[in-house]
Amino acid sequence: QEYLPEVAEKGETRLWFVDGELLAAVRKVPARGEFVIDMDRGGSLARAELSRADRAATRKIGALLRRHRIRLAAVDWIAGKITDFNVTSPVLIVPMEKLLQRDLASRIVRRLLD
Q: What distances in angstroms separate CA 87 from CA 17, 31, 46, 75, 90, one per listed residue?
């Protein structure tokens, strides 16, 4: 995988999708002086600001997820590039809820029950 230097200063954006719709986005930030984001060793979450280009990309990612019938996914995004698709264990919902002060889990469950 290509090293993207932006991760050291800006982290990566976690995009959380349900049925191809962007549910939430946060930045995963590495510990000071690190470039690997380890949430158990000093990594943290921060609010994410998505650019117009980022939003356009999330619509394309959402369409791809719907086309492949992937209902839940967490996608990691650095400098306009997808670095990871998490479809078997799309984690971080609880800390994201705390940061964003939004009940994401209930929205996910309601969508899955529809």
A: 10, 25, 22, 8, 6
Backbone angles phi, psi at 100, to 5 degrees: -85, -10
Contacts of residue 56, defined as CB under 8 A and 6 or more positions apart, other chains included, come to none
Mean pLDDT of 10-22: 94
In the chain, what's the furthest Cα-to-Cα distance?
A: 45
Contact predicate 16/74, CB 8 Å: yes
Tokens at residue 10, please?
């800006």
pLDDT tens across 69-103, in order?
A: 999 999 999 999 999 999 877 788 999 999 999 99
- Coil, strand, or helix at residue 56? helix
Tokens standing for 49? 């600001």
> Are the beta carbons of 83 and 4 closer than 8 angstroms?
yes
